[in-house]
Design a protein that fits this description.
about 950 residues, alpha+beta, 7-stranded mixed sheet, 6-stranded mixed sheet, 32 helices
């Protein structure tokens, strides 16, 4: 997947923007809920980079921020660079191995080999012939990897006592990776599945065409993941050669950040890594793309690249060449980017989105080792022409080049940039990422510190100068995506209500004894959850508040939940809950939308609302000194939103465009079809918006919904960060204490949800898709169900991780049928779905489904082993500790525990309850809740032949 597309769109990390990550995430607009108690939320500062937690930050004064003050650099005799940083805010540590190799080191014919090698690094070593994902899972590690243009990185975050084991595993695969013919053949199928999944996206296809034109003779014009044709031809010898050339200590950086002691850790690193030999090859001779020249701007054709293919909405993509990352103009380019695309007050958002031309618009500046680019993109609103968007975009850029940059814009851009860095400077995994990318790309791990200072010195004249120099009309490459088929609803659906009858031989179940055999030794310190409990109080109007002070960084995370979700949508006005949430920031009785946006963005703060199935969630982020502004803005929109008619109409048009896009997304369509098939028509979870329902909603309807459902007595507010509890309590009482509600809160009736009587197969077809997305499931349990904890353990064994679970071991690793497969129990206030999801090539879909059903039948009938239960419990408990070290995850846990009616102590008791789960309980859950003969199976995308299912 695109590793950083969602949350790291800002700052300099677009070096990683199109990184390909080993894990698999299905994107279907947040329709499902994370069952894990520590469901992480990404930082919501406008496309902010998630950096990490720094013990050097002084909470009272963020102006003295230094991200690298206590970073130590050590170079071993074999050339391995080691970066260490102690952060003692939580008992966790992250270990990362970064290699200076990516798609930049490729050429046509071997495009994607760096990414293929990344996948092979999880297949085992000569010392440990076992899927490494199973070892990481046994350690409770939050582990993954990605390949980008300039770098490949492997990362895992664990409890501190697992640090020695993580070092041993990384050293083992740095030297001893086993690349066998059978393993390569299986993983090539997985990579091809991944690439075909990208092909489902019109934006991916347009981006590929434009980047090839921008860099016709440079590796940056190649896709990071490669092509199916090249991947199919990779040989063991080719992949082994890349491993020998690039996976050598003198081409690697080891990064350790977290709760450890530097000296004994460095001693261990020298013992474990110091003996690894260097390997020489093409890397030293400068071949294979190592010495890539900077991309000096060259004239491009003024004729747009036009893709006319199946899709949903017209797209625009514009790319300009930029200098490499160490160029002195980078700071000014970052400020320029924020002025153009940094939030609602930015020039491009105002020109394209607020004008009603585009449903979304944005951009980023990528500065890499061998060059860079500035990319701008937009999606046309229904019936608007992409050529018109392109013209207005050109005028906006010309205005920046020829008219003055205001002091207000300049200061706002700098504040946004700085706040994005500080707000991201909280979580250790991301901090190590920042150190790794800085060091690999620039040779200087303190690059970010220096860039922060340089940005503060950027002048308005600097911004205009770089806009004129780099955003020249003659240097830009333009791409248009013009869909040939605009669909407002899902494609044709074929169904087959008969049980599948294929029978495939299942591989042996995952053997925990085998995992234990290869797991490095470590001494468990018996880390217990000693998490501080939040202060809880309720205002006289019923508003529930939870506060947890964390003085480690000068930041605030604010999250909340209101019982005003899409479950309250009626068939005739489906979509009203989302429209209401999306329009809260469009104006109040005293401030219009732009004023609200500037109030926050001038401080680098953010506030957003989104309707989910069971409620409206809101998230706010700011520096600690700006908490009053954040709370005042929240209080204003919750009590005084006025829903201007013109803004509501713009929002409606964007929603109609987004609905069209969603019906072109196989993940969304498969999940929506599954949900509407399982829940009966009168159930609140059955209702989804349509074109007609969205068009019927009036501003009066939205105001009525707002007045009826936005109430203090159905709202929970959580604040975590750098504050004094008494002052924040007083602030909240002052700002929200007068919020009133009349009458009783709306309530819903939830009818019973029957189980399917047999396996039901559905295949909504979307033209032009190359990869099939399958969701299967039925009604599950709610969060209050006493079986919840045993269910988590069962799910961890079944499909909690695509690399270590039974489903992952069988469908992905052994058979190579999918890039990723997961299972989940969506346990909310009401029973959600038990579901399994995967992506497959159309020709593999039926085999993958049949194998999945066979495995479910096996677990249902035979249960799991005691060793599997023990391993799953250890993994859940360890990963929970890691999750609580992330302030966003911590805030989410506190909030949702309250929403689900759990005690304050649940945050501590969770691990005890998991530990108490028995084998008998898990196997009983397998019999009770796994019903392979009663599944709804929905495959969206290409047509899947019904005849093959019989």
């Amino acid at each position: 997947m695109s590793f950083l597309t969602t949350c790291w769109r800002r700052y300099r990390i677009p070096a990683l923007l199109f990184s390909l990550c080993l894990s698999y995430v299905v994107l279907f607009s947040g329709e499902t809920a994370n069952i894990q108690p520590a469901a992480a939320t990404m930082p919501k500062i406008e496309e902010a980079i998630a950096l990490s937690q720094s013990s050097a930050v002084t909470p009272a004064d963020e102006t003295s921020l230094s991200l690298t003050q206590n970073v130590r650099k050590t170079v071993l005799e074999n050339g391995l660079t080691v970066l260490t940083k102690e952060v003692h805010t939580a008992p966790v540590v992250t270990v990362q191995a970064w290699y200076k190799v990516g798609s930049r080191n490729e050429e046509p014919g071997v495009n994607g080999i760096a990414h293929q090698l990344e996948h092979m690094m999880f297949k085992g070593t000569t010392n440990r012939p076992i899927q490494f994902g199973r070892l990481f899972s046994a350690l409770g590690s939050n582990s993954n990897a990605f390949t980008s243009y300039d770098e490949t990185a492997y990362f895992g975050t664990v409890e501190r006592d697992k640090l020695p084991a993580m070092l041993v595993l990384e050293a083992d695969r740095m030297e001893n990776a086993f690349i066998g013919a059978d393993q390569l053949a299986s993983e090539k199928r997985v990579v091809i599945s991944e690439l075909q999944g990208y092909e489902n996206s019109p934006e991916y296809r347009l981006d590929r065409a434009v980047m090839r034109a921008v860099f016709p003779n440079l590796p940056y014009g190649l896709t990071v993941g490669g092509t199916k044709a090249d991947v199919e031809k990779f040989t063991v010898e080719q992949v082994q050669r890349y491993y020998n050339n690039y996976y050598s200590p003198n081409n690697a950086t080891l990064i350790i950040v977290g709760d450890f002691q530097t000296e004994p850790t460095l001693k261990a690193v020298r013992e474990i890594f110091g003996k690894l030999p260097n390997r020489a090859g093409e890397r030293e001779s400068g071949r294979a793309g190592e010495n890539v020249p900077s991309n000096a701007p060259t004239p491009h054709s003024s004729t747009p690249i036009v893709l006319r293919e199946a899709g949903s909405a017209p797209l625009l993509k514009v790319v300009y060449p930029l200098p490499p990352t160490n160029h002195p103009d980078v700071a000014a380019l970052k400020v320029m980017d924020y002025i153009l695309t940094g939030g609602r007050s930015s020039r491009i958002y105002q020109a394209l989105v607020e004008s009603g031309l585009a449903s979304d618009a944005g951009g980023y500046a990528a500065n890499l080792i061998g060059g860079g680019w500035y990319q701008l993109s937009a999606t046309a609103v229904r019936d608007r022409k992409v050529t018109e968007i392109d013209r207005v975009l050109g005028e906006t850029i010309a205005d920046l080049q020829n008219k003055s940059v205001t002091e207000e814009e300049l200061n706002r851009a700098k504040a946004q940039f700085r706040a994005a860095v500080i707000l991201g400077n909280r979580e250790i995994t991301a901090q190590a990422m920042q150190l790794g990318d800085d060091y690999i790309s620039t040779g200087d791990y303190s690059y970010t510190d220096k860039l922060l200072k340089e940005v503060q010195g950027v002048s308005a004249a600097d911004v205009q100068r770089v806009a004129k120099e780099y955003l020249k009309e003659s240097d830009r490459t333009v791409g248009y995506f013009e869909p040939t088929q605009l669909t407002d609803q899902g494609g044709a659906t074929t169904s087959n209500n008969s049980q599948t009858t294929e029978h495939f031989n299942l591989g042996p179940p995952v053997d925990p004894a085998e995992v234990a055999k290869y797991l490095p030794n470590f001494t468990s310190s018996g880390i217990s959850t000693t998490q501080s409990l939040p202060e809880s109080f309720k205002l006289s109007n019923g508003l529930q508040v939870l506060l947890l002070s964390d003085r480690s960084t000068p930041t605030i995370t604010l999250s909340g939940y209101i019982q005003a979700g899409t479950e309250f949508d009626l068939l005739a006005s489906a979509g009203i809950a989302s429209l209401t949430a999306e329009n809260l920031l469009n104006g109040t009785k005293t401030k219009d939308a732009l004023t609200l946006a500037k109030t926050l963005e001038e401080r680098g703060a953010s506030l957003s609302f989104a309707a989910t199935r069971e409620g409206v969630s809101f998230d706010g982020y700011s520096l600690s000194k700006d908490l009053p502004t954040l709370v005042q803005t929240l209080a204003d929109v919750l009590q005084n939103a006025n829903f201007p008619e013109d803004q509501l109409e713009l929002s409606r048009q964007r929603s109609l465009t987004q609905l069209k896009e969603r019906f072109d997304n196989p993940s969304y369509l498969a999940y929506r079809t599954l949900q509407q098939t399982i829940y009966p028509s009168k159930h609140p979870f059955h209702v989804y918006p349509t074109n007609d329902s969205l068009k019927r909603i009036t501003d009066a309807d939205v105001m009525r919904f707002y007045q009826a459902h936005y109430r203090p007595d159905t709202t929970v507010l959580t604040v975590v960060g750098d504050f004094e509890a008494q002052k924040v309590r007083s602030l909240i009482e002052t700002q929200l204490g007068s919020w009133k509600a009349s009458g009783k809160a709306p309530r819903l009736d939830f009818p019973s949800v029957p189980m399917p009587e047999k396996v039901v197969r559905l295949n909504p077809v979307i033209p032009g898709k190359s990869q099939a997305i399958t969701f299967m499931g039925y009604r599950g349990i709610n969060r209050q169900d006493p079986r919840y904890y045993a269910t988590l353990v069962l799910n961890e064994i079944l499909g909690g991780d695509t690399l270590s679970s039974r489903l992952g071991n069988e469908i992905r690793d052994r058979l190579g049928l999918t890039y990723g497969i997961y299972s989940a129990f969506q346990a909310g206030k009401e029973p959600g779905l038990f579901l399994i999801n995967m992506q497959t090539a159309p020709e593999d879909t039926n085999k993958a489904i049949a194998s999945t059903l066979g495995l479910l039948q096996q677990v249902h009938a035979q249960g799991v082993s005691s060793a599997e239960v023990d391993t799953a419990k250890r993994s859940l408990i360890s990963s929970y500790t890691v999750q609580l070290a992330d302030p966003d995850s911590l805030t989410s846990v506190i909030l949702m525990n309250e929403v689900y009616g759990l005690s304050l102590a649940e945050i501590r008791d969770f691990t005890r309850k998991i530990q108490a789960v028995s084998l008998e309980q898990v196997n009983q859950i397998a019999k009770d809740l796994l019903q392979p003969d009663n599944l709804v199976v929905v495959t969206a995308g290409p047509s899947v032949s019904p005849a093959a299912l019989r």
